[in-house]
Write a structure and sequence with these properties.
Radius of gyration: 23 Å
Length: 349
Amino acid sequence: MTLHHNLYIRRCLELAHQAEGLTYPNPMVGAVIVHNNKIIGEGYHRKAGEHHAEIIAIESVTDKKLLKESTIYVNLEPCSHYGKTPPCALRIIEEKIPEVVIGCIYSNSEVSGKGIEMLRSKNINVTVGVLENECRELNRRFFTFHEKKRPYIILKWAETDDGFIDIERNTNQTGRPTWITDKEARRLTHLWRSREQAVLVGSVTALKDNPMLTVRDWSGKNPLRLVIDREGNLPPILSLFNGETSTLIFTYNPKPTVKNVEYIPLIDGEDPINTILTTLFLRKIESLIVEGGAKLINLFLSNNLWDEARVFIGNQRFEKGVKAPCLDKTPISSEKIGEDCLLIYRNNL
């Protein structure tokens, strides 16, 4: 039976993963309904405010009488509270589904354990913890947000084969990034932006590279753009001020909101990173990509405020320049992306 449980929970994960980047602030959830070792219904949550996975799976079953003899598999505990949709646990009870197999428990205080309690109170057989690690991995952004009260933080940079993140550039050399990677890596970066909720750069990167921080080489929603501009000296001609998408400027000299650009005041004596993370948590932003520059990334590293690092190694050499951040960890994966190498790191706190 354990093997069967694993098989169907894996299918739940496959289904849920199809909505990566689309369900915020909700988690990614897939559900599978099995009758006599045959899948008779399945579904996944596509967007906040729409039906949850369990409801879609139930509705997909042609012969509803079979539900009373079936098992429903779901990678995350069915909800028990009324939000934008009714509780999934209640619908499972109403359909008299006798068995529920769950990958992992919610960490949202509104739900945690209560869905399981509701099901068991109606004598439904509930199994919990099937492929729990895999289920938590899928929704690592959601769990980090609710358990650590901050967004899931991804550090991203590209460095040369000899360990530099940039050449030495003076303030007059602005508006043009120093490309280290090829177009495949840049396209992947745009995919990542489409899946995360916010992207952050420092004022030096904003000034020298003039990045747009939008999704262009991929289809998807633009992330919330963030920049630290302590003194408020960035010129309004930069792309970050074009009003194309929502942008937050963290500064000691805030200005009135204009053209989709909002100024967030920094507080004297408080670490700007804390202000940023608190602001994002209060706005229910569950994920953040930090794209540079080196000083900003090193600030997150020195504070041990990161969950994942995505590092491209380009096949060129600068010989001198701005040193890339240093991670004293072994990557969990290495992959060839075009002519570049992508290393993935995890920070196990």
